[in-house]
Write the structure tokens for this entry.
Amino acid sequence: MSTIAEAKNDSKAEQLGYKLSLFIVLLITSGLFFLGDHLYQLSRETGLISTAIPPIIFLGLTFFFFRNQNLHRYWEVSFAFFCGTFGLFLAWAEVWPQRYAFSLQGIAFLKFTEVLPVALAIILLTWFVQRSLAPIYLQKGNLKLGLGLGLGLSILIMTVYLLFSWSKIDFESLLQASGWIIIISILDAFFVLLMLPGLFLRRFIGLLGVSWALILITMVYVLFNMGLRAAVGPIRDYSGLILFALLGFIYSFIMHKSDSIWGSLFLYTTVDLVYFIGMFAAA
């Protein structure tokens, strides 16, 4: 009996070690992946070459994992990284305009030029290879649950914001900017949710299980929003760190429970609306 118990303990320890090692590898890879979202700041030639390297590497890894029987289970994660990096390469190619804007209309246009190539790359490649958009949560799923959670939290957030900020809002400016603010918020929400939990959550769950995958996605979301510099330097904004961690977990949790992106999309759009109202319609 003791031998069996020891064997089980050894097996659990090995599984824990494997998951922890894989967790660290995926966290580092994800961090490097989202570094690609900042390579456009380099010179045009250097930035274009730099953004072209990651998709080539991940495409090669995808073929290698797919053809290797022992490593076959990793091909979907590698494929997800390829879709994302290829989309970013298209978004920051020279044919797209410079990422500078000084008006809501300009921000909306530039956000659209960022979202379009990334979304098309992810959606079309996923459909072509896997013949389904379920891997990236673009499906109905449990729509009632997803929208219920998203709408309920959205109403709560907007109510609290208005209660504390009513006197600080310039409603004339808000009315003039409302259309563009809504467009920007929807585009930004779709971009981030498709790039983060959309691309990776289901794939990470397949390798790590639900709990580990949610923690990993949450950490990656924090890196994405606070910047990779925060991962290697002193953290000065702990309130921002906590807020991003909480939001990242909630978005991912709703997507997992509802098996679709729509509830989280509604909630993310609301959070962005609060942010942009404060930025463009402050009294």
